[in-house]
Amino acid sequence: SLGAARSSPSLRLGQWCMSEGDPPMESRADIISTVEFNYSGDLLATGDKGGRVVIFQREQENKSRPHSRGEYNVYSTFQSHEPEFDYLKSLEIEEKINKIRWLPQQNAAHFLLSTNDKTIKLWKISERDKRAEGYNLKDEDGRLRDPFRITALRVPILKPMDLMVEASPRRIFANAHTYHINSISVNSDHETYLSADDLRINLWHLEITDRSFNIVDIKPANMEELTEVITAAEFHPHHCNVFVYSSSKGTIRLCDMRSSALCDRHSKFFEEPEDPSSRSFFSEIISSISDVKFSHSGRYMMTRDYLSVKVWDLNMENRPVETYQVHEYLRSKLCSLYENDCIFDKFECCWNGSDSAIMTGSYNNFFRMFDRNTRRDITLEASRESSKPRAILKPRKVCTGGKRKKDEISVDSLDFNKKILHTAWHPMENIIAVAATNNLYIFQDKIN
Amino acid sequence: GPKRQREQAPRSKVGVGKDTQEKETVIPERAEEAKLKAKYPNLGQKPGGSDFLMKRLQKGVFISPPFSWRLGRQKYFDSGDYNMAKAKMKNKQLPSAGPDKNLVTGDHIPTPQDLPQRKSSLVTSKLAG
């Protein structure tokens, strides 16, 4: 274990545990499809396959239990999207929440965007802890009073009530995407956001739902000429005119909206040269980027492809500055992973608050963390068996061949149904949320 | 998931006494490709070709037209299906609607006569928006 002092900036990879009150929260029905902390980290939103959003809130630290940090408890639950049917194409539109993105907080209420394949919704989550009593025009039980019977007026009084958290849809951004939405990203101007589908990216204003600007369109005139699709897109954290989008061919394009209204021509083009001698049938599939995330600093971006995570310096287009192997042992299993479709799994990745570490998921409920400074990495498991409250997670190891050591797991024993596609890192602290199918795990680093 | 039968994990490092020229063990991806091609000889050359991507664009549960109007919400009269069925069955006896008009089977192409009175939409199509 690294055993660094509390104030050390480097990540203590070996010391993660679940805090006392945070057993994995099981979503009764559905597989979690997205996880996202808000800007302060006090709220954690999850979306699931059934179209529901569940928001957790971090409790204030309890002075009587100084060693237990704030726990996350359910704050609000609502049905964001319902299944729909596209009669024209005879296709069912899934209610599954693909992405949730929080808006920066501007007043007492919280706002988030949630999207399924076709429709983005802006939700307002607000608290009510006071109730007015003593209305003139209605009784205490809500029945209207006959105005002619009222002989005296009174001023209603605000009385405290049990906290009620209400979620209401404030905007519905629909009918702008022919293909399936894979990304949404709020701009640093806090007024606009982008939504990306397989072939197009649209720019919206948060106040305007009946119009959006198309800023990227890679649909060829003849669909026979289609060679790649958009897989993810994100706005730069500081420069409101800059965004990036990744492709199924492993490339990333950075676009500047100042250069033209339609950003079909990129300002920068990021691609790692391929070694022609290692090209195979699988090369393009495993190079497809499933997620792209800017660092908090805005200087770097990270991409996730099937087997690795790459960190790119925005100033260098011809290759990444760092490459981390997530599960290289799968390279010799590509045939079966292609047959069972796992090769198309879309893993996400995330930065920690200081950009010193990155995290991504794998199979068998494993997830991986990489410390960019020390170059150390760790594999941990999100499962009930290995996660007792306050017990430190034990590092896991996959045996790639030869003799299997005790506590190692062989590649053939990995459960490919247990995939961790979605993880999130608290923006400031070492708290992580890991979605394992329909269970949500929250881990905190252990303070000695 | 479907577990493959146990097979020997390919050695990425060359073992003692083995021929060091075995290219297949050095490039596991190629070995996997050979395995796949052996199983599916008709596999297209380019996985990134447009057929492959087109399938990806169309992901979603596709409900074929003859069944889409049986989803329980409303019945639609599909003139295309009706005319094709009429042409096909010119020489055969058309399956009659039968005593139970509510019973709809895959063979029965609805005629304008046996569709129920159209009610107003319960669900407004977003396309009409």
From TrEMBL, chain A:
* Keyword annotations of the record: Repeat, WD repeat
GO CC annotations on file: protein phosphatase type 2A complex
**Keyword Repeat carried by entry:** yes
Which one of the record's GO molecular function terms can you name? Answer: protein phosphatase regulator activity
- What SMART domains does this protein's entry cite? WD40
Coiled coil segments of this chain: none
Q: Which PANTHER family match?
A: PROTEIN PHOSPHATASE PP2A REGULATORY SUBUNIT B (PTHR11871)
Q: Which family does it belong to?
A: Belongs to the phosphatase 2A regulatory subunit B family.
Q: What is this protein called?
A: Serine/threonine-protein phosphatase 2A 55 kDa regulatory subunit B
Which species is the source of this protein?
Apteryx owenii
Its taxonomic placement starts with: Eukaryota, Metazoa, Chordata, Craniata, Vertebrata
Automatic annotation (TrEMBL), chain B:
- GO BP term, pick one: cell division
Disordered: annotated span: 1-25, 91-129
Question: Which keywords, in A-to-Z order, does the entry hold?
Answer: Cell cycle, Cell division, Cytoplasm, Mitosis, Phosphoprotein, Protein phosphatase inhibitor
GO annotations of cellular component type? cytoplasm
Which stretches does UniProt call biased (Polar residues)? 118-129
Please tell me where this protein is predominantly located.
cytoplasm
Location comes to: Cytoplasm
Q: Bias category Basic and acidic residues: which stretches?
A: 1-10
Q: Could you give a GO molecular-function term held by this entry?
A: protein phosphatase inhibitor activity
Q: Which InterPro entries match?
A: Endosulphine (IPR006760)
Top-rank taxon = Eukaryota
Question: Into which family does the record put it?
Answer: Belongs to the endosulfine family.
Which PANTHER family has this protein been placed in?
Answer: ALPHA-ENDOSULFINE (PTHR10358:SF21), ENDOSULFINE (PTHR10358)
Q: By what name is this protein known?
A: Alpha-endosulfine
Species of origin reads Apteryx owenii
